Amino acid sequence: MRTDIASQPLTIFRKDYIAPGFWVDTVEMGFDLDPIATHVATRMTMRRNHDSSEKNLVLFGETIKLLQLRMNGVNLKKSAYSIADGKLTILNAPDVVTLEIETVIAAGKNTSMSGLYVSNGNFFTQCEAEGFRKITYYPDRPDVMGTFTIMLRGDKKKYPVLLSNGNLIAEGDLGDGRHYATWEDPFKKPSYLFALVAGKLVCQEEKYKLKSGRKVLLQVWVEAGNLDKTQHAMDSLKNSIRWDEERFGLELDLDRFMIVATSDFNMGAMENKGLNIFNTKYVLANPSIATDVDYAGIESVVGHEYFHNWTGNRVTCRDWFQLSLKEGLTVFRDQEFSADLVGTETGRAVKRIEDVRVLRQVQFSEDAGPMAHPVRPDSFVEINNFYTVTIYEKGAEVVRMYYTLLGHDGFRKGMDLYFKRHDGQAVACDDFRAAMADSSGHDLAQFERWYSQAGTPRVKAETSYDADAKIYQITLSQTCPDTPGQSKKLPFHIPVAIGLLGADGKDLKLQLEGQTTTSNNTLVLELTAESQTFRFTGITQKPTPSILRNFSAPVVLEYAYTDEELGHLLANDSDPFNRWEAGQRLATRRLVKLTNAVQKGEELELDAMFIEALRATLNDTTLDPSFREVVLTLPSEAMIAEEFAVVDPQSIHTARQFVRASLAQHLKSDLLSAYENNLTPGKYSPDAVSAAKRGLKNVALAYLLAWPDDATFMLAKTQFDEAQNMTDRLAALSGLSNFSGSAKNTKAAAQSLQKFYKDFKNEALVIDKWFMLQASAYTCDVAKVRELMKHSAFTLSNPNRARSLIFNFCNANPARFHAADGSGYALWAELVIALNKLNPQVAARLARSLDRWKKYPQNLQAHMKAALQKVAETKKLSKDVLEVVSKALAS
Ligand code: B3K
Ligand code: ZN
């Protein structure tokens, strides 16, 4: 092993924050666009921050060529400044400075998709977190905010559209085949919100009237040929604008708001001021290419980026350790937006269930691994590695806990105060907490630990009932496992929403001993000590507790429920989340037991109680189809894995497949009726009611194919052949491609897969689905992935395509990825190394697939360690990948 990997890149610590030595007031930039050499001329006015201990003028710059540097009209000699480690330092700068900087960028060669880059001949930027320094030397940190005026110049034919932030204030011909456009953003902003787009694009546009009566221009820009796929994004944008006005009293502050789609993008989308840049995946939709899930994804991402305009842009982050200040809050807002749009109580609950599933599956796992970090991290090597589920999804749970503790109106008051205090500022997570505390009078001092302590708390509940005294007592105790660098955890402030069900399934009236608070259904207990006992009075029968309703805190709840109690909750709980949760607990219990049985080679059996409980739910037509769908969906293999100290992916897969097949066998006629009763004939509509029906119908179909015969095969085949929308077509194809039955049917399934490719070969987003579907099918082993990598449509350099095949195989096909011979890990290492050269951010994401290597049996661990070491020893490893693999190896 090479020893020089010890030369670790610099770790940045939150405690080292110092305010910038200089503020920026105005920034003017001129871009001469050319993929080989884009010239950028920047003029900025700066003034000393007398409150800072930093006396030098510090600018950041990476991968750019510096042509010229002038200060207050004078060319700076090389001796007047130094450049080292991406920092340009000017010593002895006066208090008031005008800097003029000329830089050159080779955008056409930029495969990192950070900074200025070219995609399909068009220019795009991505500046968050630290991409602006790849454009010019600049104090590229979020607490430095300036007003930007941008002039873009470029060839009229190649770049007919020239866009940047804010308002278009001038445009015209330059007479030499080029033209220009000047954009002015009236709001001061940090450099990470800068954006430009230039190229051949077309738009759908609309004038939209705000509640105040002011009219704004909304545009969705795409490549020619995609204008038939922009309506849903436009509708989602209008819904977002309206929702933020209604729910939070926040108005769009610009006259013009643009969304631009590109197929080359590292993540979902970016909230640049007035010029959101999106991955095509979160813009383009019509019934023939997009599924219900895609439609919902577009709505929530369009909402998310739009909501950032206030939570992120108007009030931004002081430093990147505060990232969750904007991300956690904005995820909470987009979750609420989607839930409000569905409208019904069940719809809200199903949305909540889907969000919690992601949290548990991905964030709880992150919290238990080598990359675990607090919602407000203390250190990082590469900030791009910290755009994590902890910052986003756990961050949103933290915001939701304020909402649970303060109530709907209390939370709104807190938000109002937050904007009143901090509009136009770059602030910290503590400022948000202070606004919530000060507006409500609620003591939130201890709540700070949600920001500073990593790890998923475990809450244990114990209950007892005293029939004579009519007292029901519940003791809640909390612990939190060690995480890297943190071993002693102090108690969290945990809201635990609780209800008590009587024998008739109805909620009992709740009265806490010694308190005036009563409730007809749910009370929020505040657990602040390591252990606390709560006593309910006037309880005339031994109840079934429904604890942590609506998942009121991001914790693992341990309570020794009997199967009967879970059955009672599944059938009756007035809290739909816990109703679902009861079903999941029943399922998990069985899946764990069966996995153990698989390992011991014992006979597998599924009990009647569980089958009957699911049958009752499936057939209960008073329940919303979307709710029946989520109850019927078993915990994923990854979720089941979390139940084990040592994970055996193959046995988990076998056990889960056995449960699916058994359910299909016993519920066959019920599944067939659910299928028949939830058809959605006629024109496709992505609305919640139709989507819910399709969801239930397609879950029924997937089950039917787990215990297949010729008739169910034909059902899927016919659905595939005759589908009028992508939701039904893809669901059928997924069933067919996981099909294991007669040779004749298997062949027909393979033909359907080929036909799908042929029919959609010009729709990149559909071809991503084609790869994704194959990569996550159990039939796909390492050799099959290698074969698919040779397909003419495969490329590593497009992030969506790389994710569709490679990430799906490594993350969504555990039984194959963790092949006993280590071939999955060898493939992983090869691809992390290949991606590292192209795109460090994407490479580092893939690198995370081996985070939990210590959870696997010894033989697999040995293979994983070798793969991790292979990556760690690679020359020219980016700090992105190095941080991930070294943390994994050190665990
Ligand atoms: N703020 C961006 C994410 C930027 C990621 C940089 N590596 C998108 C979002 O959260 O809305
Ligand atoms: Zn965001």
UniProtKB/TrEMBL annotation:
Keywords of the record: Aminopeptidase, Hydrolase, Metal-binding, Metalloprotease, Protease, Zinc
Every Peptidase M1 alanyl aminopeptidase C-terminal domain range: 563-890
GO molecular function: alanyl aminopeptidase activity; metallopeptidase activity; zinc ion binding
Enzyme class: hydrolase
Pfam family for this entry, one: DUF3458_C
Role: Aminopeptidase N is involved in the degradation of intracellular peptides generated by protein breakdown during normal growth as well as in response to nutrient starvation.
Record protein name field: Aminopeptidase N
